Amino acid sequence: QAPNKVFAEWAAAGGFRPDVTAVRSEYVYGDSRLDFCLETAHGLHLVEVKGVTLERDGAVYFPDAPTERGIKHLHGLVACLAEGYEGTVCFVIQMEQADFFAPNDLTHPAFGQALRAAAGAGVQVLALCCSVAPDCLSMGQPVPVRLTL
Hints:
three-stranded mixed beta sheet, 3 helices, single chain, alpha/beta, six-stranded mixed beta sheet
């Protein structure tokens, strides 16, 4: 739940984009329940947040276990684009530094394929580190996203 909470606070404060006027959580779209619907000056922007904790040699990866639900959410984001919405998957890295983010094709190649397809369709893929303290998690710097195999 921490990644969703930190994203919601960050988005409400204008960190995601400055024209956000409302942040609604648990937004039902089609047969999916996406994490957020942001109301913006340009319309609705649907966002799915994924918490990232898997690190290898300075790089971070998602997922750490197969996630059919994650693939379903990516398909939902792609579908929303056809209806004129904007869509983003935001990987919240629960550590302060990472060299880059990539899909974990070793654990779940289908998720990597779905993420690449979503990005190709126009879904924004965002990865951000967090500042971590015992009683606080706050959004930090963006991390390069590597989708090529």
